[in-house]
Specification:
alpha/beta; about 350 residues; four-stranded mixed beta sheet; about 45% helix; 15 helices
Length: about 350
């Protein structure tokens, strides 16, 4: 009898533990809530500052502590990792198409683009060139990247969202020059023939160029280029090409995961606070373009210079004289992926040849 009672109690305990494992992921009232933000390579510095800002804001708002954990890597690779089970309560990726990969895995509810203001893009960026001081190869525009003897550094579009933006910006430039599609393909082919290494993410490419001394020009996120200018004064210059692209990093709550951890409200507030004035100015100080027009204006410079040798003392670093296209020119991300980045699409054809 005692043995049966013992086995019965053990069974109850195991059942309770099993039930807790399935539905007990939400923290107890006295536990610190944790959320995970899976992001792309160049946002490391931004979110190191933002997470501190948000943790303070959240505790003031709710009276409860919260801890934010970060993960960084090539945006495309990060999206696949989340789709395959890497924990993410929120994603802050390089482009809408990468967030869609997570949504297609059933982890994000439909309509994520309309969940937050401005197509769920709290900040934007564009693509520029980073060259060595004095610009020894006289690189001024995209056509200079296809000259013989110019070493180019850019990441791999198969794993990096930033690399996709780079590719599309180059495509738009050659298109703007009046080239036919076949001529554009040939120009892009020449560009990638000059690429010395295809790193998996934008930060890896920056390391190759800045720390390892490879190449003559880095095709870079604007914020990455300015960080290099700030960290290595006098060693690099930024060249703003005549044609670039409006890069719209996209954010979303990973609804299925956040609900499982009892963190859905916190995850929503984490992304919504990115649009606050305090966060928008932090984004601008990390060289992202704020989505709030009035705060964006605070950082816009009147200069027409297309070569930037140092960060302006007045903090006004944003240049407006670059012609930018956007993803709609390519039919949206679903079409752009199909035409350019899917298996056997234009990038594969160009790079393989």
């Amino acid at each position: 009898m005692k043995k049966n009672l013992y086995l019965y109690l053990v069974g109850l305990t195991l059942s309770a533990l099993s039930f807790g494992t399935l539905v007990g992921c939400a923290p107890r009232e006295d536990e610190e809530l944790e959320i995970v933000n899976v992001s792309y390579d160049p946002t490391r510095e931004l979110y190191a500052g933002y997470n501190e800002l948000f943790e303070k804001h959240y505790e003031e708002l709710t009276g409860k502590p919260i801890k934010v954990t970060q993960s960084h890597g090539g945006s495309g690779k990060q999206a696949i990792e989340v789709a395959n089970g890497l924990r993410a309560d929120v994603v802050t990726l390089a482009l809408e198409g990468d967030v869609q990969v997570v949504a297609d895995a059933g982890l994000i509810d439909p309509g994520f683009l309309s969940e937050f203001p401005r197509d769920s893009s709290p900040y934007t960026s564009t693509i520029v060139f980073l060259v060595r001081a004095g610009n020894p190869k006289n690189i001024l525009d995209w056509n200079d990247l296809i000259r013989d003897g110019v070493g180019v550094i850019t990441p791999n579009p198969k794993t990096s969202g930033g690399a996709m933006w780079n590719y599309l910006a180059a495509w738009r430039y050659f298109e703007d020059q009046g080239q036919t599609e076949e001529e554009i393909r040939e120009s892009i082919r020449k560009l990638y023939r000059n690429v010395l290494v295809l790193d998996s993410g934008a930060r890896g490419s920056t390391t190759s160029f800045v720390n390892n001394g490879q190449g003559d020009v880095l095709i870079a996120w604007e914020n990455e280029a300015f960080l290099s200018l700030r960290e290595y004064p006098g060693q690099y210059e930024i060249v703003i090409p005549s044609v670039s692209i409006l890069c719209q990093p996209t954010v979303a709550v990973v609804d299925k995961v956040a609900r499982r951890h009892g963190a859905e409200d916190a995850a929503d507030e984490y992304l919504r606070y990115l649009y606050s004035d305090e966060a928008q100015r932090l984004e601008a100080r990390n060289f992202y373009r704020p989505s709030a027009p009035d705060i964006l204006h605070e950082f816009v410079s009147d200069t027409d210079e297309n070569v930037i040798k140092e960060i302006p003392a007045d903090g006004k670093w944003i240049k407006t004289n670059v012609k930018t296209t956007d993803i709609n020119h390519f039919g949206g991300w679903a079409k752009a992926r199909k035409d350019h980045f899917a298996e056997g699409a234009s990038f594969d054809q160009i790079y393989e040849r």
